[in-house]
Design brief:
With 286 residues, this protein is an alpha+beta fold. The protein folds into two domains: 125 residues, no CATH class; 152 residues, no CATH class. Helix content is 29%, strand content 15%. A six-stranded antiparallel beta sheet has the order 4-5-1-7-8-9, with helices on both faces. Strands 2-3-6 form a three-stranded mixed beta sheet, covered by helices on one side. A hairpin with an 8-residue loop joins strand 4 and strand 5. The protein is globular, with a radius of gyration of 19 Å. The two termini are 22 Å apart.
């Protein structure tokens, strides 16, 4: 992998992350996506997660360069791509050439390498308000999450109060406080919502709108779970399975190992890659 990470023509140089703009996030303003913006970036922008502008989509030109520079399909690129495909993190898409998929799959690995600490993994929720109090909304969210967990992990014991110390393999902690008032983004319908995870600062510092899940089967052994335990590929796969059983308005932002960010939603992984790049990779003849 070192040749890919540090080589003269490495992809790192292609994916420099720029700091742009100033704070403008408002959870009660419906976010309107930019043209050719990925769903992942739209969710990050709409939730306040990307208020500093650190996250960027990989562009069609960057995909093209990655494929062309690694056109022989050998060495570290093919090895790394095989590992990604095997993990399920970047399974080849239908219609993609094998090399097109390889170059395409590697790109997300280098996104967000300079992300600040506030971009730790978080749940992002825009629950339709309907006729509910904040307390009722919080109870509804807990029940939805509880059902989703037991669908995938029926033998796990779920605790609804904070417990300090080791998270055992057969238990989980599910915590939620009351939501904030919000407006769903345009891609969800711009409805009045109760929100969780909608903040431009570290989510653990918020007094409202925080949803936390620590799922024992996702971690490597019985241990006290820290930030580094939350970013592994095993956690990504575990949480992705849980999202299969959740509504479309619940997302999980996962930083990933080496800060390889992605959005998880309804059993799918959405990378920070603009739609035009999808089309180029799919039709690549390399």
């Amino acid at each position: 992998m070192s040749a890919v990470l540090y080589g003269k023509n490495s992809l790192v140089g292609l994916l420099a992350v720029l700091l742009v703009g100033c704070s403008s996030f408002s959870p009660t303003k419906s976010y309107i996506s930019e043209p050719n913006e990925s769903l992942a970036l739209s969710v990050a922008n709409a939730s306040g997660l990307n208020d500093k502008g650190k996250l960027k989509d990989v562009t069609q030109e960057q995909v093209k360069q990655a494929i062309e520079k690694n056109g022989n399909g050998v060495g570290d690129v093919s090895v790394a791509s095989s590992a990604l495909f095997a993990s399920g993190m970047a399974a080849p898409l239908p219609g993609f050439s094998s090399l097109g998929s390889a170059g395409f799959a590697l790109l997300p690995m280098f996104l967000g390498s300079e992300l600040p600490a506030y971009t730790s993994s978080r749940w992002i929720v825009w629950m339709p308000k309907e006729v509910m109090t904040p307390d009722q909304a919080s109870e509804k969210l807990i029940k939805l999450m509880q059902t989703a967990i037991t669908e995938e992990y029926p033998d796990v014991n779920i605790s609804f109060t904070a417990k300090y110390g080791k998270i055992l393999a057969d238990e989980s902690q599910l915590l939620s406080n009351n939501p904030i008032d919000a407006k769903a983004p345009e891609f969800l319908g711009s409805y009045d919502a109760y929100g969780w995870g909608l903040s431009s600062t570290a989510i653990y510092t918020t007094t409202k709108g925080k949803l936390q899940l620590f799922l024992g089967p996702c971690y490597e052994g019985n241990k006290e779970v820290g930030d580094m335990d939350m970013i592994t590929e095993k956690v990504r796969q575990c949480y992705m399975r849980v999202t299969k059983h959740l509504p479309s308005w619940i997302y999980y932002y996962h930083v990933g190992a080496n800060k390889t960010p992605a959005i998880l939603n309804q059993g799918k992984i959405f990378n920070f890659i603009e739609p035009a790049a999808d089309k180029y990779a799919a039709h690549s003849s390399y």
